Amino acid sequence: MKKFEISTTHPYNICIGSNIMPNSGTLISEVLEPCKIAIITDTNVNSLYSQVFLTSLIESGFEVSKIIFPAGEHSKNLNTYGNVLEALADEGISRSDAIASLGGGVVGDISGFAAATYMRGIKFLQIPTSYISAIDASVGGKTGINLLSGKNLAGAFWQPSLVICDTKVFETLPPEQIMEGVAEAMKLGICFDSNLIPRIIDRDYPYIIERAVSIKKYIVEADELDVGLRQMLNFGHTIGHCIEKASAYSIPHGVAVAKGMAAEAKACAAMGLTSVDVYEKISSILTEATFDLSIDFDASELYQYALLDKKISHGKIAITVTDQIGQSHLEKISLSQLKLFFESAF
Ligand code: GLY
Q1: Do residues 224 and 9 touch, judged by C-beta distance below 8 A?
Q2: For residue 183, how far is its CA from the centre of ligand 1 (angstroms)?
Q3: How would you label 84-96 residue by residue, b for 16+ Cβ within 10 Å and e otherwise?
Q4: What is the CB neighbour count within 10 angstroms for residue 319?
């Protein structure tokens, strides 16, 4: 097992290893006093992993309760969030107790937001069970829910006390869930480390996860609150989030991000921010990874959704420009340039 220390305002470890979930209780007892732990999970993950996780917690002397909500992005809303808070209160969870998120990005985002706000904040543990949440959402303390108006519009930064990433669970993920993680991993390869790309194609999970976590560690330690460098992680997300919203979340996040990366690179090339060659390389990397890069929505509709992007500040938004594969920078553009950006992306 490898440990990465994330030195944010509240430092914590990310433990990565194969088949470490059955040892969760021991790892957690190194960071938490005996307490109640509310496991928050979804209907899919509950049947797969909650028993082994729960048993391990009980064996280590924790009192355990479980809160389950329906799997899927549609659950990431005020209603589920409210139900989770009420369930925590019904279970008698106090300020000295903790929440454990067992699941993918949706479970992690809702559980983390509940942990950040229940009784003004309680301890939080992340046990990512999807490839995409292991390399992205479980690192860096972003939590939140979607509003009717758009994605992740309510949330908080709330760092976990520990992340336990069992790479064995990725061996049994269905192909569409693997592709979700491939998209976010490709984003890191394209923006920061071209050597990562062949390892992603080879599905070398331990290497990819450790490299992805070390890239995110560097970024979130430098910019925990997402006001500068961290915004580079939004490559593909400015357009990708709008695609998700326009599809009423029927297009999964990773698939939308892959389409968004190609579209944003095309727009950057059209606006003279990068070369056409870089756009073509990005497009070919993603196509070879079997992503369908077509977008069936109007630029004007997607642009309307982008106007609620959280990154907009003082009438400007930072977009990630790839200079060459493995090297990127941020460029601040005005909202009128953003309109052109969307028009140039199609
Ligand atoms: N998922 C992007 C970030 O953590 O900033």
Answers
A1: yes
A2: 14
A3: bbebbeebebeee
A4: 24
* Amino acid residing at 307: L
Rounded to 5 degrees, φ, ψ at 249 are: 65, 20
What's the Cα-to-Cα distance from 111 to each of 103, 142, 201, 203, rounded to whole Å? Answer: 10, 11, 31, 29
Ligand 1 atom with the shortest distance to the CA of 219: 5
Burial 114-148 (b: 16+ CB within 10 A, else e): bbbbbeeebbbbbbbbbbbbbbbbbbbbbbbbbee
Angle between helix 175-192 and 253-270 (nearest 10): 30
CA of residue 230 to ligand 1 center, whole Å: 7
Q: Which atom of ligand 1 is the closest one to the Cα of 184?
A: 1
CA within 13 Å, CB half, 146: 21
Residue position matching structure tokens 């899927």: 72
With a Cβ cut-off of 6 Å, ligand 1 is lined by 136, 140, 142, 226, 230, 233
For the chain, 346 residues long, give each residue's pLDDT as a single digit of tens: 999 999 999 999 999 999 999 999 999 999 999 999 999 999 999 999 999 999 999 999 999 999 999 999 999 999 999 999 999 999 999 999 999 999 999 999 999 999 999 999 999 999 999 999 999 999 999 999 999 999 999 999 999 999 999 999 988 899 999 999 999 999 999 999 999 999 999 998 889 999 999 999 999 999 999 999 999 999 999 999 999 999 999 999 999 999 999 999 999 999 999 999 999 999 999 999 999 999 999 999 999 999 999 889 999 999 999 999 999 999 999 999 999 999 999 8
Beta-sheet pairing, 162-166 with 12-17:
parallel
* Bridge partners, residue 4, by sequence: 14
Beta bridge partners of 38: 65, 99
Q: Which atom of ligand 1 is nearest to the CA of 234?
A: 2
